Structures are given as C-alpha cells and as structure tokens.
Amino acid sequence: MEKEKHVLSNQNQEEEEADYNVIGILEMESNWSTLIEKKRKQKPRLLKISAGNSSCCIFRVPQSLVEINEKAYQPHIVSIGPYHHGKEHLEMIQEHKWRFLDSLIGRTESVGVGVNDYFKAIASKEERIRECYSETTEVNSNEFVEMMVLDGCFIIEILCIVGNIVPHDPKDPFFNMSWVFPFLMRDLLRLENQIPFFVLQTLFDLSMTCLDKKVPPLAQLALESLDYVIERPADKVLKRYSNIEPVHLLDLFRLSFILSPQDLNEKNDLCLEMKDSFPKTIPSAMKLHVAGIIIKARKSDSLLDIKFDNGVLEIPLLAIDDSISSFFLNCVAFEQCYSNCSKHITSYVTFMSCLINKPSDVGFLSDQNIMENDLGTDKEVVRFFSNISKDVAFDFQQSYLSKLFENVNEHCRNQWHVRWADFKYTYFNTPWSFISALAATMLLLLTMIQAYFVIYAYVRPPKPPS
Which UniProt keywords apply (predicted)? Predict the structure, then answer.
C-alpha cells in the first residue's frame, strides 16, 4: 500500500514538473517572441540603412583605417558637426564660436537679417541634413539646428576674415597665435568633422546680404583659405573650381586637385578593353630607374598630374608633411565610404606607395626634386605610404592612372629597354666609368684600324718600284 502511494506521489510530482516546464517554455516563447519582434523593428544606429544613398556623405572612418593612424581622423582643437560635439579637449574653441556668431549676426541685423532667420533657414533643412550623416545623431531638433548654425557661421566668419571680406582684430588669438590657425584649418579637412556644404551655402548667402562690395563664390573663398594648408598656384585652381558643388569642405579641397571637372568621372573606355591580368603594381622608383625609365619632376598645379611617355615618368613635386598626410588619409577614407565620388586620391597614394618601398626610393625622389620630406625620416615616409594603402578596396582598372600602370609595366617587360638601361648604368653611371668605357672603345677602334691595315698590306702588298 505504501509502495503504491509512493508511486502515485512520484507520478503526481512528475506531472506537476511537466506542467511547470510546459508553462515555463510557453512563457519563454512569449518573451522570445516579444524580444525578437522588438529587435526586428530596431533600425541600425551606427551605420544607417540610408548610408548607401548619395545624400549620405559624412561618415565615421572605418576601424581598419583608424587603427593605422587614429590621430589623423580626430579633430585636435575644434569640433564641427555632431560626431565630436561636446568633447572636453575641444571646449576652448567651442566657447569662441559664439563670439564669431555674434560678430556675423551683428552685421546682418542692420539689414533686417537676424538670428531667427538663420535658425529658420536651417530648421527647414533639418531632415535633409540628418540624412547626410551615416550615424544616427541622438540630438534633439533644437540642439541639432543650433549646432549647425553655430558651426556653419563659425566657418563662414573664419573664411571671410582670411579672405579679407570682413575686418578683424589683429590681436585676435585665432590669428595672432601662430599655432591655432594651422590646426584649425587641418581640422576642417577631417572626414568626421564636416557639415554639408549646402548648409554653409545657405548661411553664407544670408550673411552676405549686408555687404555692398562684390563677394567671390563660397567655393572660391574656401579654397583660398584652405590653400594655407597646402601651398600651390591657387589662381589656376580657383578659376577651374569656383562653381563646383561639393558635398562638404573636404570634398571641395579633394576636387580641386583633379585636373578638370570633366575628369571627375574616372571610368574610361580603356578599362573595357583591359585583360583580367591587369597589373596591380609597378616597380619601385629605384627599380624603374635601373630599368631605364627616366623619372623627373613635372611642373603642375595638381599633385595628380602624372604623365608617362616614351620611357619618361613625370611626377609633380610632393611636399609631404603632417597636413598633406592628414589630408590624404581623410580623402582615402571618404573615397572608400562614398560610392558617388571618383577615387583620384586613392589612385594617387596607391601609385606613390608602389614607387616608395625603401628609404632609398625616398632619397632618389628627393634628389630628382619630386619629393620634399617634412614628415620625418625617410623610413617614416615609407611607413606612411605602406600603411595608407593597407586594407583599401581599390579597382586598378577604374583608376585614372590605369593606362599609366599598363604602359610602365609594358616598358619594363621589354628586354631591349632593360638591357640598354643596364648597359648605360654599367658604363655611364659615373664620369670615371664613362672615361674607362670611352678609352676602351677608342683602344678597340684603334686595334681594329691597325688590324685592317695589317691585313690590307698582306692581301695587297705594295708593288715594288719598276
């Protein structure tokens, strides 16, 4: 009897446990369903779905590139836009933005354009502005519009002062302290530190209503100021690009290096005819020199204006320093992220990374007046170009240098060119080797002449006198 009770008790316990497990599973399924349903409806925040649209043009730099040189992508003294807004080390310049805003609005209020006009103009474009950023910005509407107006007016006031459009106090620390301005202009060319160009254009148009004199276009004004970062013949550049429509300041400066607006579409008909085995590299500078290719400096207002013809490779002077290296890194990051732009800067740095494999390549290019090294040692230049081309997705056949790559490699494959170059390098590399070769040639020639007369005298001996 007790056994039967024990068995029944166990059965009841098992049934209760089974019921409990069923209830538990049902509750878990309900929780899973609710949780999954909630997560399914969540939109990506760090890389929005709309980031692939042509309207999205301001990106977070990919982590693979950040790991190479994090400092090149981070603003040092000023934040522009939402990505670095509110960071403590940028607070000093943040405080000065209000001073520049006050100065700008103080001028336009005299013609009836007040602070509300600036805010209304930007508020009407808020949704379009937010679409320009690849990362969801957790800032409410009022704060977002305020940030755009404050940052945009700050940039415009700086450009107007540098361009002598408006006067400024000579004791202003921005222009009186030599370290501030270079860092400021460099920060304006960082990918994560941008606001849309149409925001600047809107604010610029409002701010110019108070001026009677003729004012250059915003793109021209910006290029004049940004050319403080990299010196070049600005007049030619300004004539070509004063009317282009970039997506932001970094894009504007990038476009100004492309030879002509017609070259913005990098694809060409040659690419369709190229073989699958298209060369993805060219020999280093020293190897090209040994192969008989003459490498010399080319006078041009664009770094990208590289030419190869009849065994002569012409490259414009590159003064490599912290500013240009930062610009290259941010441009490559932009071209990697934004599918609606050409890849000219990526093409250029890839070409240079092929040329520069060793410190001796840097030294050779410096001797040819093609490179000025203000970055550090020759090893640091090699390291920079080696790193910048790492983990970069790049289609060589779509490059504006595609034909040049093909022609250089074809020249190097020609054995006649290589042997002739080797002969010149062996016998004409130094004055002494040239003199030795010349003496040997003259000796050989004299020996041949002597042999000729000996043989001639033997074959046709002189007739004895009659």
Answer: Membrane, Transmembrane, Transmembrane helix
Q: What is d(CA 127, CA 144) in angstroms, rounded to the nearest whole number? A: 11
Query: Are 233 and 241 a contacting pair, CB within 8 Å?
Result: no
**CA 313 to CA 289: how far, in whole Å?**
10
- Do both 122 and 151 map to the same domain? yes
| Domain finish residue from 187, 221, 256 | 256
State the SS3 of 288-341.
HHHCCCEEEEECCCCCCCCEEECCEEEEECEEECHHHHHHHHHHHHHHHHCCCC
Model-level pTM greater than 0.85?
A: no
Is the C-alpha dihedral spanning 419, 420, 421, 424 positive or negative?
Answer: positive
- Provide the 3-class DSSP secondary structure of residue 361: helix
Distance CA 373, CA 305 (A): 20
Task: Give the tens place of pLDDT for each residue, 56-99.
Answer: 999 999 998 998 888 999 999 999 999 999 999 999 999 999 99
In a domain, 72, yes or no: yes
**For the CA atoms of the chain, what is the radius of gyration?**
34
Domain holding 402, by residue range, is: 278-420
Where are the extended beta strands (E) located within 301-401?
Answer: 307-309, 312-316, 318-320, 371-373
> Into how many domains does the chain fold?
3
Question: Is residue 48 assigned to a domain?
Answer: no
